[in-house]
Amino acid sequence: MVENKNRYAAVEALLFAVGGAVSFSDIKNALEFSDEELQQTLNELKAMYDSEDRGIRLIELDGKFQLCTKNEYYDELIRLINVPKKHILTDVLLETLSIVAYKQPVTRQEIEKIRGVSCSHAVNRLVEYNLIQEVGRLDAPGHPILFGTTDDFLRSFGISSMDDLPVISPDRLEDFRKQAEEEAGLINVET
């Protein structure tokens, strides 16, 4: 059991050593904290990082926690590690990504049915960018791959969980449906 005065250091050490996102229960079990102790420690660490002039922050991704570089230091980090800047998401990639985000788990065929065009390139590019990943196989003939979003998706869009995605109102959804049908020539537009 970690002493109370060292609880911040223990959580920092664990998150730093792992590097990726670590679940609440894994941290709790490793450090032998109660739920309340760990939640309080995480909240206090997050507040310290947010209020101080620090280069890192503590983020939560669907109940998992990770230390990461603050966004304002991205340019300095890029100069050090010399990798290309953020990936450019075209309208096609954003459209495909939004379908995966809202419909996941979803197959490539379902995405193509919604978009009305082939999406192989867009899906492959989103997998390459690590914004979506294979999350399983559909129990159907051919066992098509099911896709879902990744922790990098949450990080990239600055959200903690899929529950933070904007909700589309039914009226707006109906307007989108009508617009798509008009564009596809399925219904006549009154002039």
Please describe what this structure looks like.
The N and C termini lie far apart (74 Å). α5 (91-103) packs across α7 (120-128). The chain is an alpha+beta fold. The chain has helices spanning 7-18, 24-31, 35-51, 74-81, 91-103, 108-115, 120-128, 151-157, 170-184; strands spanning 22-23, 56-61, 64-69, 106-107, 132-137, 145-149. It is elongated. The strands form 2 sheets. It has a 3-stranded antiparallel beta sheet. It has a 3-stranded antiparallel beta sheet with strand order 4-6-5. The longest helix is centred in the first third of the chain and has 17 residues, at 35-51. It has 9 helices and 6 strands. The mean pLDDT is 85.
Gyration radius, rounded: 21 Å
Amount of helix: 40-55%
Order of helices and strands: HEHHEEHHEHHEEHH
Principal-axis shape: elongated
CA(first)-CA(last) distance: 74 Å
Total helices: the number is 9
Across the major sheet, the strand order is: 1-3-2
**Largest sheet properties:** 3 strands, antiparallel
Task: Tell me, rounded to a whole number, the average pLDDT.
Answer: 85
Got a strand count?
6
Topology:
Blueprint: H1 7-18, E1 22-23, H2 24-31, H3 35-51, E2 56-61, E3 64-69, H4 74-81, H5 91-103, E4 106-107, H6 108-115, H7 120-128, E5 132-137, E6 145-149, H8 151-157, H9 170-184
Antiparallel strand pairs: 1-3, 2-3, 4-6, 5-6
Helix pairs in contact: 5-7
